[in-house]
Amino acid sequence: MSQPPYLDAAAIERLVPPARAVDLLEAALRDGLDPEAAPPRPSMPLPGGELLLMPASGGRYAGVKAVTVAPGNPARGLPRIQGAYLLFDGDTLAPLAVLDGLALTASRTPAVSALAARHLAAPDSRTLTVFGSGPQAWGHVRALRATHPLDEVTVVARNPVTAAALAGRCASLGLSAAVAGGREQAHRAVAEADIVACCTTSRQPLFPGALPRDGALVIAIGSHEPGAREVDDDLVVRSTVVVEARASALAEAGDVIIPVRHGTIPTGHIAGNLAELVGGAVQAGQGPRLFKGTGMAWQDLVVAAAAYEAWAQGRGYA
Prior knowledge:
It holds the Pfam family OCD_Mu_crystall. With 318 residues, this protein is an alpha/beta fold. It is built from eleven helices and 14 strands.
């Protein structure tokens, strides 16, 4: 028996570009995938951080992603999040492919956010403020550019070197790109943005919740811990809140859990999950819109299966 192929970062990007990933995720939800039925992901603490297992099955495939989160890695010049994905045939349960887990996460997470933006942000959204300068920040620029006519990006990040590098990459796409030089410029960028993408490891709110204007979309994807958040209670109260799934959000999303714990909002303040949003069941209010994602295993499976099928077809397989 031949060894399963290994699909690296370059292969995943080539086989499932951002616009394709967004469409695949939307199609899965329109075909009846229920995010609330997804199993919880087990987590195990390790001396260097955390190990997460994310299994999923559906259609012709099953798969599992093993992910490690090592907070000390950036200081070593290593990725904070690493991992691998193993894709199986749904009938025989034979292994079909191994995929770069970090690249898969860097593909599907921005695609999920862009899918939410497709239904929550104004169709003519042109200005993006992105917090963070790592792979997720870059991925969100690319994915959101695939769904909206973005022409201006402001980068807000603690590291001026990586912030400038990200701005340069944005400029290479033909975007007007700048780095916010301090808190005042960052706050102005949030207040003026059509879309704000929070892609950081911050455990505290990044900006005052009064800043985003009515109709603007804020995306918060940086954490999956009940005690960490990127947005404050004020923004959550003002916003139409959409999550990937209520069950996972109320278990892992500090951006939602903390306001509930404070008594600032009831759990019913969540306007809908991603399937309900795609299905047209979410009615946005007058204030900002907030999408909170923590990452779910079904998203990995959708993108991994598509990458494998594209690889197999390119080699004459069924």
